[in-house]
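Exercise: predict the structure of this protein bound to 1,3-dihydroxyacetonephosphate.
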Amino acid sequence: MRKPFVAGNWKMNTDSHSSVELAEGIVSGSLEVAGKSVTVAICPPFVYLQAVVKAVGNSNVALGAQDIYFEGNGAFTGEISASMLKDSGCVYAICGHSERRHVIGETDELINKKVAAAIAGGLLPILCVGELLSERQASQTNDVVTRQLKEGLAGLSAEKVSAVTIAYEPVWAIGTGLTATPDQAQQVHELIRKLLSEMYDDELAQEIRIQYGGSAKPSNAAELMGQPDIDGLLVGGASLKTEDFLAIIKAAV
Ligand code: 13P
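Solution:
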């Protein structure tokens, strides 16, 4: 049985005060379920990781990074390595978020290096995949997701891939208020699980958690997570509101 996994991606939001307040609210509101019946993670901006790790304390709310760089250390101005993230208390690292793919210009090859570096550094990567609206309209969803999944995990053994969570985030549903219907999302999640079974084996494919992301909110969370292959949510906007994020966590239980 896969334990549901709800993660909040705060993106470039909050400040030193509100990041701590939000983290404290999430910790105190999820005490009964976090880590037990649902895995909960929050991914603040890098600069607030150290404040948020204190706010999270030894609770079962885990910390994640929104991105990672694949080199260990050295002359890579502005980048953050796996060991720095680990040292700052991170357990998870988002790799290949659509905003990094489409706003910053990250390639599948770079994202693959990030996933590998996260695993090598003892972090659990959340590999994001998902098609643009134009790609969905051109019936290319399956091709795009297949490419992003295969290239994102290229060269990684089954043992390493068991550390990975996949997040299916259709780009047209992110921050737009347009959610994929549970049926649309389930179809892609089923494809991802089938691909994992072909690339590795069925046992691993059944173990890996596949989150959905894209305008997830309290009103659609239960129905989305009720789909057989949707194992949780990667939440953007609604993870910035304590009440909404807590309602989503509770919908997972
Ligand atoms: P929204 O929930 O704001 O649509 O963002 C989804 C997302 O990109 C999470 O990583």
